[in-house]
């Protein structure tokens, strides 16, 4: 029996030199994310809390159910799926109907993670897979942004959030365009302090650049994240933007605006560094970061959508095994011939 | 089992389930994914393909002794293209709206590997009657599969079936299901179900075999 | 790979015979189908256009297709144009308006529209999208969003005092910011599509309305002509 033996070999990630187990790393990621979550609830009120809780719960329950029905030991206990859920929740608009949050969560874990074989096997970042599905399925709801720091954010719930499952949400709150949308359609750039301290509208967890950055610093200090990826992304974006700003300062924004607006910080620090879906070698990580950065700039400048971090990371995820093949010296190239 | 005569009914039935062109052979994916955004489009595409399958199968079978081996591909493609062009005119004569909805995909029936595959594998080796039965079975199997995908996509994407609203107005439509990517999702869903059923079928067959021996 | 060696070589003659024979057979089939459907297809196309015209200009009872002649004057034509222009008349052969097809680049592909112009109101009074491939759920809302459709119940395209230019060009503004009758109230989330429609109407109106205003009255109405 000659079997077709043409597999794309994907190695597991040696990012972690400390030998820490999955749940220790995940607990640390959780600590790094906590300030971002707290700020998100502070800025957007109970709505954000409900979105985050629903996102996490839907991911955890989906994982548990799928593990049980396929007869595998449940991997809920190692926190990884909970992190996926929280990250996924942080990328969503804070007034998204909860039923959509749940649909996306089920999709994120079911299709983004489980279909590829579960923990450690996903080709794409599951949180972004869930978000990308929602973006394609419900484009209107996914581009509806509520005002941050509304006076009644702790007393009233936006009507949209409790929309009956599968029914169209009715929006009552005032909407606010995100800084990137204002840049794209009205050529207005938000100021640095606004962006750094998260005073603008946007997805639940993407607004406050400083807290996300601090979370990243914490993880790097504990040697639990490959710092090359976010640094490479930020450098690439800054340099390309700076070059274009020199050419035409009216059309193209300043590098700081590009760095601190939209989902760039959240994506660079917490999404692109997904240990399974990013390259293994350090050189590969630089290249991977460069690819994401370049794609972000291309989509934001010349694409139809104002934001492109999600698609940039997903596309780079798809090529990360190929980056490894490209970078890895032939000597270690067990992929060739051995198959 | 192996020596059993293949009856005409078998030729017809195999396309419906056992060798279903979409769910088992996974042929003709381009129209199956692209034109199944509503049940109506899926049905029209399926019927158009069935017509081309029938006519090309019949012609190839009738001309099978006239066509030498070396010239068979060019002859088959020529015959298929003729009937695709005919079906294009026929649909335009039936309804311009339908023609517009199906768009470029009518012309692309010509590259549907299902049709060339049946011409090559079956019609060129069998009598016209059998070729017709085979084409009809495959065509109906293809139409049913498209319809299955189309119904799922139309319900979720537009809240209706064949244009009739089946869900309340407040239903939030899933834009992605109308887009081409929705075809992949609906297709994957049906493949999952079909493969599960097939798996059960073989398991059940194994068990009865064991019980008999 | 051994098959060709064991099989006898087919003569070139039989290959030619088969290919030519099948070519003739196929040509015959196509000619027969084309001949038998041509009438129906033409009727369908005429019916489709007539329905679209009466939708954008209900008062229209008969139409004459017009085009620009070599001298830059308006003249009746019998040709089928890619972007036809019609003068529309009521039962008493009085001019009630003009119906124009226009085309422009949208977000995904060209958008084709049909719109009607009223000589009394100096405004666009009817609008229908003939063909668009805009994103479902976003761009295609230009076909269903009531406030957007309401733009074309009376969109001001009056000419300046010289009669050679639009007094104000048509422009698309952001949703809810329409203040003037020549502005198109856009759709949030379908910015590019709604701007594309404003632009293509502006281009078409700039080119045609001065000509129509100047020459439309002088076109002879042939009794029983048009559709």
Description:
The complex is a heterotrimer of chains A (339), B (213) and C (227). By secondary structure, chain A is mainly α. Chain A has 15 helices and no strands. In chain A, 58% of the residues lie in helices and 0% in strands. The radius of gyration of chain A is 20 Å and the shape is globular. With 213 residues, chain B is mostly helical. Chain B is built from nine helices and two strands, in the order H-H-H-H-H-H-H-E-E-H-H. In chain B, helix 7 (128-158) packs across helix 9 (180-212). Chain B is flat, with a radius of gyration of 19 Å. Chain B starts with 7 loop residues before the first helix and ends with a helix. Chain C is 34% helix and 23% strand. Chain C is built from four helices and nine strands, in the order H-H-E-E-E-E-E-E-H-E-E-E-H. In chain C, a hairpin with a 5-residue loop joins strand 3 and strand 4. Chain B binds chain C through residues 59, 63, 66-71, 74-75, 78-79, 81-83, 85-86, 89-90, 92-93, 95-96, 100, 157, 173, 175, 178-179, and chain C through 7, 10, 14-15, 17-19, 21-23, 25-26, 29-30, 33-34, 37, 40-41, 44-45, 48, 131, 135-138.
Spatial gap, N to C terminus of chain B: 16 Å
Main sheet overview of chain A: none
Shape of chain A: globular
Please state the structural category of chain A. Answer: mainly alpha
Number of helices of chain B: 9
- DSSP, total strands of chain B: 2
Biggest interface reads: B-C, 29 and 27 residues
* Large-scale geometry of chain B: flat
* Widest sheet, order of strands of chain B: 1-2
Mean pLDDT over the residues of chain B: 88
Question: What is the total number of structural domains of chain A?
Answer: 2
> Sheet bearing the most strands of chain B, described?
2 strands, antiparallel
List the topology elements.
The complex is a heterotrimer of chains A (339), B (213) and C (227).
Chain A: H1 22-44, H2 46-69, H3 80-90, H4 98-113, H5 126-137, H6 139-142, H7 179-186, H8 192-197, H9 209-221, H10 228-247, H11 255-260, H12 264-271, H13 282-302, H14 309-327, H15 335-338
Chain B: H1 8-13, H2 29-34, H3 39-62, H4 72-94, H5 96-102, H6 113-121, H7 128-158, E1 160-161, E2 164-165, H8 175-178, H9 180-212
Antiparallel strand pairs in B: 1-2
Chain C: H1 3-6, H2 12-56, E1 62-68, E2 74-76, E3 85-89, E4 95-105, E5 110-118, E6 123-131, H3 146-149, E7 155-156, E8 171-173, E9 183-185, H4 191-215
Parallel strand pairs in C: 8-9
Antiparallel strand pairs in C: 1-2, 1-3, 3-4, 4-5, 5-6, 6-7
């Amino acid at each position: 029996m000659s079997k077709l033996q043409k597999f794309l070999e994907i190695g597991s990630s040696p990012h972690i030199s400390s030998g820490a187990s999955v749940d220790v790393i995940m607990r640390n990621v959780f600590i790094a994310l906590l300030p971002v979550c707290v700020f998100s609830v502070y800025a957007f009120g109970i709505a954000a809390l409900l979105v985050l809780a629903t996102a996490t719960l839907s991911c955890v329950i989906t994982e548990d159910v799928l593990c049980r029905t396929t007869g595998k030991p449940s991997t809920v206990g190692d926190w990884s799926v909970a992190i996926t859920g929280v990250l996924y929740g942080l990328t969503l608009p804070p007034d998204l109907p909860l039923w959509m949050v749940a649909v996306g969560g089920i999709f994120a874990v079911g299709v983004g993670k489980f279909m590829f074989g579960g923990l450690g096997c996903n080709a794409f970042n599951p949180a972004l897979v869930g978000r990308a599905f929602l973006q394609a399925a419900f484009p209107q709801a996914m581009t509806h942004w509520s005002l941050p720091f509304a006076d009644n954010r702790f007393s009233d719930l936006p009507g949209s959030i409790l929309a009956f499952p599968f029914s169209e949400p009715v929006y009552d709150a005032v909407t606010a365009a995100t800084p990137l949308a204002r840049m794209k359609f009205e050529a207005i750039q938000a100021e640095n302090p606004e962006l750094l301290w998260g005073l603008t509208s946007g997805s639940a967890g993407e607004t406050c650049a400083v807290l996300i950055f601090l979370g990243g610093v914490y993880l790097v200090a504990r040697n639990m994240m490959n710092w090359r990826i976010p640094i490479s992304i930020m450098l690439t974006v800054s340099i390309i933007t700076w070059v274009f700003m020199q050419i035409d300062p009216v059309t193209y924004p300043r590098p700081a605006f590009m760095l601190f607006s939209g989902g760039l910080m959240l994506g660079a620090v917490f999404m692109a560094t997904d240990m399974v879906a990013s390259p293994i070698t350090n050189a590969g990580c630089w290249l991977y970061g460069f690819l994401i950065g370049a794609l972000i700039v291309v989509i934001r400048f010349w694409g139809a959508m104002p934001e492109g971090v999600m698609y940039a990371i997903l596309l780079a995820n798809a090529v990360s095994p190929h980056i490894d093949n490209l970078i890895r010296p032939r000597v270690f190239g067990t992929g060739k011939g051995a198959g | 089992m192996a020596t059993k005569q293949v009856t005409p009914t078998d030729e017809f039935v195999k396309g419906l389930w056992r060798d279903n062109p979409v769910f088992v052979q996974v042929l003709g994916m381009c129209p199956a994914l692209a034109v199944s955004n509503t049940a109506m489009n899926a049905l029209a595409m399926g019927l158009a393909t069935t017509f081309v399958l029938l006519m090309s199968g019949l012609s190839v079978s009738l001309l099978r002794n006239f066509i030498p081996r070396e010239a068979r591909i060019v002859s088959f493609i020529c015959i298929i293209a003729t009937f695709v062009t005919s079906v294009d005119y026929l649909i335009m004569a039936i309804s311009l709206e339908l023609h517009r909805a199906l768009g470029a995909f009518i012309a692309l029936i010509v590259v549907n590997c299902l049709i060339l595959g049946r011409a090559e594998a079956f019609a060129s080796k069998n009598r016209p009657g059998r070729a017709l039965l085979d084409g009809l079975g495959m065509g109906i199997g293809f139409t049913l599969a498209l319809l299955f995908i189309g119904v799922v996509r139309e319900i979720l994407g537009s809240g209706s079936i064949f244009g009739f609203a089946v869900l309340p107005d407040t239903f939030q439509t899933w834009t992605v299901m109308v887009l081409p990517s929705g075809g992949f999702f609906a297709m994957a869903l049906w493949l999952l179900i079909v493969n599960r059923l097939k798996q059960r079928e073989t398991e059940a067959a194994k068990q009865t075999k064991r019980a008999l021996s | 790979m051994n098959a060709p060696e064991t099989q006898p070589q087919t003569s070139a003659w039989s290959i030619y015979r088969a290919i030519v024979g099948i070519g003739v057979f196929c040509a015959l089939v196509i000619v027969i189908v084309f001949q038998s459907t041509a009438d129906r297809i033409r009727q369908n196309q005429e019916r489709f256009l007539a329905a679209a015209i009466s939708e954008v200009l209900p008062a229209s009872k008969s139409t004459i297709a017009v085009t620009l002649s070599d001298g830059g004057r308006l003249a009746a034509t019998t040709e089928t144009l890619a972007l036809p222009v019609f003068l529309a008349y009521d039962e008493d052969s009085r001019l009630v308006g003009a119906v124009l097809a226009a085309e422009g680049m949208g977000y995904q592909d060209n958008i084709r529209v049909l719109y009607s112009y009223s000589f009394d109101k100096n405004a666009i009074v009817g609008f229908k999208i003939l063909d668009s491939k805009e994103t479902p759920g976003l761009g295609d809302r230009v076909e269903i969003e009531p406030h957007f459709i309401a733009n074309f119940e009376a969109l001001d395209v009056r000419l300046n005092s010289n009669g050679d230019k639009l007094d104000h060009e048509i422009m698309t503004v952001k949703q809810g910011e329409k203040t003037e009758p020549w502005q198109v109230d856009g759709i949030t989330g379908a910015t590019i599509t709604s701007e594309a429609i404003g632009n293509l109407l502006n281009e078409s109106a700039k080119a045609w309305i001065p000509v129509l205003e100047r020459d439309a009255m002088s076109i002879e109405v042939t009794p029983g002509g048009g559709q």
